[in-house]
Amino acid sequence: MTLFRMVALAALVFTASAQAADMAFFVKNLRKEAVAVELFSRDRETVWPGNDKVFLIAPGSQKSVPFSCNQGEHICYGAWADGNDSLSAGVGPDNDQPCDTCCFICVEHSTETIDLVP
Q1: Which residues touch 81 (CB under 8 Å, ≥6 apart)?
Q2: Dihedral sign, CA of 52, 23, 100, 116?
Q3: What is the pLDDT of residues 66-94, one digit of tens each?
Q4: How many CB atoms lie within 10 A of CB 81?
Q5: Where is the signal peptide (predicted)?
Q6: What is the distance, to the nearest Å, from the Cα of residue 95 to the centroid of all Cα atoms in its chain?
Q7: What is the C-alpha to C-alpha distance for residues 73 and 25, in angstroms, rounded to an integer?
Q8: Separation of alpha carbons 68 and 30, rounded Å
Q9: CB of 17 within 8 A of CB of 103?
Q10: Of 55, 87, 90, 108, which sits 20 to 30 A from 11 (CA to CA)?
């Protein structure tokens, strides 16, 4: 195999694996306090919404959180009581808590539901 073919094949594989996908999380806040939510990639250093912002969800409300990710990427959520990050769910505000049920795989045109219970 020529060097050119190997480089072309590598470029094709890389491009296919980094295919952008649009998906959403549907967050239901069943708590009595507002919650802040961030989404964290487990495959690269990316946070949504980013820039030191959070998705804020009022008590007893629900919100669709759309975002773009890489097809097949692992996305985890961290949620905490607004103003009190010691009351957290998922991977927490610093993406450092263990969690088996708070990570999802990025799939084009899919929606994952998150129920934040008291």
Answers
A1: 31, 33, 34, 35, 36, 87, 88
A2: positive
A3: 999 999 999 999 999 999 999 999 999 99
A4: 18
A5: 1-20
A6: 11
A7: 14
A8: 26
A9: no
A10: 108
Residue 89 exposed, middle or buried by CB count within 10 Å (0-12, 13-18, 19+): buried
Secondary structure string (H, E, C) spanning 13-44: HHHHHCCEEEEEEEEEECCCCCEEEEEEECCC
Instruction: Give the H or E element holding residue 89.
Output: strand 84-90
* Global confidence as pTM: 0.81
pLDDT digits (tens, 9 = 90+) for 32-64: 999 999 999 999 999 999 999 999 999 999 999
In the chain, the domains with their CATH numbers are: 20-116 (2.60.40)
> Angle at the Cα of 40 (from 10 to 80), degrees rounded to 5?
175
Which two structure tokens, joined as six digits, stand for 103?
A: 């990570």
CB 89 within 8 A of CB 41: no
Beta carbons within 10 angstroms of residue 28's beta carbon? 15
Dist. CA 28–CA 63, nearest whole Å: 7
